[in-house]
Amino acid sequence: MKIALVIKDYSIFQGGAERYAVDLSRALTEQGHEIHILANRYEPDGPSGVRFHPVRMRSKPAWLKIISFSHNAGKIIRKEYFDVVYALTQVYPQDMYLTGGGVYRHWMRVRYPFAPLRWLAYLSRPIHLANVYLEQRLYEEKNNRIIVANSLLCKRHVEKYYRVPESRIRVIYHGVDHVLFNPHNAAAARSETRRAFGIEE
User: Fold this and answer.
1) C-alpha angle with apex 36: 34 to 37, nearest 5 degrees?
2) 65, 68, 76, 81: least surrounded by Cβ within 10 Å?
3) What pLDDT was estimated at residue 186?
4) Can you list the positions of beta strands (E) in the chain?
5) Beta carbons of 50 and 35 less than 8 angstroms apart
6) CA–CA dist 30, 149 (Å, integer)
């Protein structure tokens, strides 16, 4: 299959979603799939043979940064043919979207429980409006087939805030590479890391 993975930064050093994109591309390549990465920044951490599609993104302001990435990635998606488009960031149209960071509208309610302050935050910081705008669009059925939630909580939030039917949501928990992340490796690196940062035992 010709599979597109969409992520702003393709790197094992950037964060959880970014590392997941690299690990997923490696696993899919090993299974014989043709993998395309749509990203603004690409570090050669992935498997050989992966094709990189650069996605232009404005550097600032913050709200235009996410809007421009989504817009430009969407243009590539519409131009190219992919069997599956799996978005790991806010992009539409796509076939599958990972709610790795949860639902933004819910985060705003947690961050600003008092409604007037929440609306003031929306109006004073356009980044909040941009995130909610993209979120609203990408959950629409015409722009998405399957929502991948990494927890039951995220699944409930998608159903609550955007009325996505349960039939379009799959809960898939993230795996952990136990060869890399395990108590033995942590203990082996502990003393050296503490010394490097001047932290006493």
Assistant:
1) 150
2) 81
3) 82
4) 2-6, 9-10, 34-39, 41-42, 51-54, 84-87, 96-98, 146-149, 169-171
5) yes
6) 24
